[in-house]
Amino acid sequence: MADPPGCCRPCSTCLLCLYSCQCVHTCPLSGFQCDCSWFFFLFCVFLFTLVWLYIAIIILNDFHNFNEFIFKQQKLWLDWSLVLLIATAVLITYSAALLVLALCLQLCGQPLKLHWLHKILLIITALVVAAAFTGLGIKWAEEWKSARISLQATGPFLHIGIVGGMTLLAWPLASVIYRTHNTGLKVFLLLAYSAVMIALYLAPLGITSPCIMEENQLPPKPALIAVEHRATLAPENTLMSLRKAVDCDVQVFETDVMVSADGVPFLMHDEKLTRTTNVQTVFPERAALNSTAFNWTDLQQLNAGSWFLERRPFSSVQSLSHRDRVQATRQKIPSLEQVLDAAKESNISIMFDLRPENHSDYQSFVNATLEVILHSGIPLQQVLWLPDGFREQVKQQVPGIQQIYGRKRHQDENETLLHVNLPYQDMSSDEIKQYRQDNISVNLYVVNQPWLFSVLWCSGVSSVTTNACQVLKEMKRPIWLLPSSTYLMIWLVVDCVSFLMILWAFLLMK
């Protein structure tokens, strides 16, 4: 059958037809309502993907946890954050490009003839992002707390961006309203859009951030603590990493301690040696054993640095000098005694956890560790004790050690907490301020991103544990700091400009 006069035939090979069809209302699959449905779906997929991009950027602060999880499960070490960002960038670019084309068609009064391939790809995009959100909620639920904290750093700017985006949407919306003859649809679109804009205009009433303050109210910059099982400038838990931490102006070197089979405390984070040493080459038949099953003589035969150059757990490895690379390949597992001597020379404190806590000989581990501390001659105020096991015994034997607690204080408890060490997700800004007023030192871990460091700085945290000290030490002030009066003025100006542009859009499109 011949096509009706004046009607274009969509090419079967085109992906997005740029020509209008004069008889579009005769086809139920390409009619106006179908166009509106696919445009709405495209808009929702774009927003869904945009939110995921925001979440992906936020979880970069803690992505080393995911890398370690994959290694434990698959024995494969890779910086999966690159995979995440590349995949997310592809999805957001694709949906954004389609949305821009769709908006242009709407403004030109043309129908959206979305090719079936685009429809399938949009559905796949929505399913992939939904799966990512589901996986995050099941396996990494604490990151939702990180997202809430991020709103304190980005809330004012997200508000401006969302208001701007919804304001630009007024042009295609006005075009749709003036083109349709369905009064009910017109009323619904106008009411829905008006409700969203009113909510956005009033949103700053619910936006709070510790960085909305006067310049003279800013607390001192938090001290930096280098976390050694995530060292980015040197192989973790080595003497090289301690020296790099000293060069980075950190005040505390945070690490993990285990005790060998013959009673020598040494630095190691993992229960097994496979990730950070060449134990599979030197002792292949014993590679699956726990770290504490090896004696000190065996441990000293292992190389603890070559893996860092081979696997490149951080992008910063590529920037290491030739001298640093040579030094990294020569690293051995250090004993606690060696580390204490180096800390004493550098006048840096050391904070450590004693692992594994569930070991049957844990009390002997505590005794061996205390003995090394006492014989090292390091000033006891430079030793920060994290383990909860046998804490009272430690207080009696070595009363000068600083006790660091991995919990919040309880109401009406007799024991006075002077130092607490917690994940940054577990402390609100109000709690940090209250602890600061009560002279309780608060250290939060692990803080790598400048936006997070800025929020905690404004909140008044005492120190942060980080593996990005080379970045945070360069920060002279938080990323942004706004007096409340300035923020109020920005809020009012943005809302007024948005309202006037929406009025102009509807008058112009009419």
TrEMBL record:
Residues 222-476 form the GP-PDE domain. This is Glycerophosphodiester phosphodiesterase domain containing 2. GO terms for biological process: actin filament organization; lipid metabolic process; positive regulation of osteoblast differentiation. GO terms for cellular component: actin filament; lamellipodium; plasma membrane. One of its GO terms (molecular function) is glycerophosphodiester phosphodiesterase activity. The keyword Hydrolase applies. Belongs to the glycerophosphoryl diester phosphodiesterase family. It holds the Pfam family GDPD. Keywords: Glycoprotein, Hydrolase, Membrane, Signal, Transmembrane, Transmembrane helix. InterPro entries: GP_PDE_dom, PLC-like_Pdiesterase_TIM-brl. It is a multi-pass membrane protein. Residues 1-26 form the signal peptide. PANTHER family: GLYCEROPHOSPHOINOSITOL INOSITOLPHOSPHODIESTERASE GDPD2 (PTHR23344:SF1), GLYCEROPHOSPHORYL DIESTER PHOSPHODIESTERASE (PTHR23344). The chain crosses the membrane at residues 38-60, 80-108, 120-138, 158-178, 187-207, 487-509. It is found in: Membrane. Its main location: membrane. Gene3D superfamilies: Phosphatidylinositol (PI) phosphodiesterase. The keyword Repeat does not apply. PROSITE patterns: GP_PDE.
